[in-house]
Amino acid sequence: MAPNDSAETTGNAADEATGTMAGRRRAARYVVPVAVAGVAAATIGLVPALADSGDPDLPKITAQQLIEKIAASDTEQLSGTVKISTDRIPSLGGLAGSLAQGDGTHGGSSADPQEKLTELASGTHTLRVAADGPDKQRVSILDSAAEYSVIRNGDQVWAYDSKSNEAFHATGDKASGHAEKRGEATVPDGVPTTPKAFAEEALKTAGPTTSVTVDGTAQVAGRDAYKLVIKPKQGGSTIGAITIAVDAKNGVPLKFTLSPSSGGKAVIDAGFTGVDFAKPAASSFTFTPPKGAKVTEADDAKAQQQAGKQAQEFKVPGGPAGLDGLAGGKGMKVIGEGWSAVAEIEAPGGRAVPTSPKSGDVPPAAQQFLDSFGDKVTGKFGSGTVFKTRLVNALMTDDGKVYVGLVTKDALVRAADSAN
């Protein structure tokens, strides 16, 4: 192989190219669901990256040219199979998994995309995807004995869970809340299901604090590709590098891998194992509920969701100073910039997060659970607990502040110190 030159872009060049891309196509949001609810921040831990086969000999290209190639890609028709590997909250085990995935009661239907598709944030999944322009997409999550699909066709959105034989339906404006208007096989609320959806959001980070280079070639899903590598220039980030395999012919991202700065397994690994850029069959975007299927309309699901929320809502001892108090906190500000940015959130009224069993706010058993995955820290800010994951870390101080970011424990402490 004759490797490509690694050509680093300047911040301005990367910004300009990224701006061009955003102007041409509205990127799907890169949503890795992260909830800081008083006890932990979400994490993503992964399985090994998908294997590439061969390093094709391709013409040299600079990073700026490759970014522009992605931006200029007008491919709107494809079908294929995607493998996504994630592990959202491994330290909390089955409890976290059940909380993350929901129990199907909040939306009133096991087919509700807002409930079902959170499963993509944990484990390894095989998806079958298809797209024909901005208004026709289909995403199917394949299981050994069942299949879950979301189908968008114009202003109609259907979701179907074959395991429970339940369907979910939304039309018109209601559908916009359950599927992107312009997405390449994306799903409700911008949950990424293809490497392109991940890559477009990642490229928005390109700027003065980012290094963007071309690092050789690869073959993904039988297609020749360039490898674009995005790295933080700043220290303290939990993100080590983002590698995007870009189709050498049409500029479509074929694979997205996010590696942590701590080393080890990738944090997100999403890539095509097979892809075809021909027009999918029209039947891919049609759906009729099977006989006997329970159908839930979007309006009915919303009403049931509100009722379920009120019925299942609970308060930890201590009232608003507890977990649910943080969710309503105001006055969030950002400390730092770029990859080292940290969000500072103050609990309502400045009341502290309950962290001591002596206060009576937390039962001893619950406190032991909290301490099992938190590290006590001190600094100019006072004292608090850092809840560490491989990607997202959170410092919760004893005086009622939370510092959250894609940064290390030491970086969180420095941010807290700088704010005091």
Which regions contain 5 or more consecutive residues with pLDDT less than 50?
A: 1-52, 89-107, 176-189, 303-329, 355-359
CATH class of the largest domain: Mainly Beta
State which percent range the strand residues make up. Answer: 25-35%
Overall helicity: 10-25%
Question: In CATH, what is the homologous superfamily of the largest domain?
Answer: Lipoprotein localisation LolA/LolB/LppX
Structural class: alpha+beta
Write up what this structure looks like.
This protein has helices at 11-24, 63-72, 93-101, 113-116, 172-176, 195-203, 298-312, 323-327, 364-372, 409-418; strands spanning 77-86, 123-132, 136-142, 147-153, 156-161, 166-171, 210-220, 223-232, 239-247, 253-260, 268-276, 294-297, 333-335, 342-346, 374-379, 382-387, 393-397, 401-405. By secondary structure, the protein is an alpha+beta fold. It has two domains: 11-305, Clam (outer membrane lipoprotein receptor (LolB), chain A), CATH 2.50.20.10; 319-418, TATA-Binding Protein, CATH 3.30.310. The strands form two sheets. A twelve-stranded mixed beta sheet has the order 7-8-9-10-11-1-2-3-4-5-6-12. A hairpin with a 6-residue loop joins β8 (223-232) and β9 (239-247). α1 runs parallel beside α2 (63-72). The longest helix has 15 residues, at 298-312. It is globular and about 60 Å long. Mean pLDDT is 73; it is low at 1-52, 89-107, 176-189, 303-329 and 355-359.
